[in-house]
Amino acid sequence: MDIARVLLMGRRASKLKRDDIRELEAQTYFDSKQLQRWYQEFVKDCPNGEMTKDEFAKLYGQFFPTGDKTKFVDYIFNVFDEDKNGVITFKEFIKAISITTKGSIDEKLNWAFDLYDIDNDGFVTRAEMLDIVTAIYVLHGKTMDGDPSRRVDQLFAKLDSDSDARISREEFCEGFKTDPWIRKALLSQYSE
């Protein structure tokens, strides 16, 4: 069972409104039947239609039983929570799931950039990258080798093409697409 489906196991079902289905079909890679199934599962766990950070952390944590998921869950939650109101609605949830599971490489890279851009200023600083990479290391517990700071130094040196001490969305996405080492380094953080 994949992470997205386990995040939605629970209690009671309902149906999406026709207008919501049309809107989400236009904004996601899911058809109306898939959207209805996802929604039914979502409202089982979140009958009021909103997922709190604690609910998200509890469900997400099932996938990482050995490490400390606290910080990484905070960062992921903040990307899912588009309007930054402290809860994830079904629309926010399904759009993030659509991008991360079915999106194009550009959509996935933009989503990943939003994860690393903690303060939402349009740039990733070394400190932000270190926060995310460290959270990933802690998430995986003792299963990852190396030093997060060293890895960040290597990534930052390759991604910051204009040497302005910050990585733009364009630098992040282009670096990932054109440099096999960057691709391997960033992807390995999620799979080790």
TrEMBL record:
Assigned keywords, A-Z: Calcium, Lipoprotein, Metal-binding, Myristate, Repeat
Q: Does the keyword DNA damage apply?
A: no
Residue intervals of the EF-hand domain? 68-103, 104-139, 147-182
**What's one GO MF term for it?**
calcium sensitive guanylate cyclase activator activity
Source organism superkingdom? Eukaryota
The keyword Calcium is annotated on this UniProt entry: yes
Give a single Pfam family match: EF-hand_7
Show the SUPFAM superfamilies listed in the entry. EF-hand (SSF47473)
Q: Which residues cross the membrane?
A: none
Which family is this sequence assigned to? Belongs to the recoverin family.
Q: What is this protein called?
A: Neuronal calcium sensor 1
Q: Which organism is it from?
A: Galendromus occidentalis (western predatory mite)
Q: Which gene encodes it?
A: LOC100902350
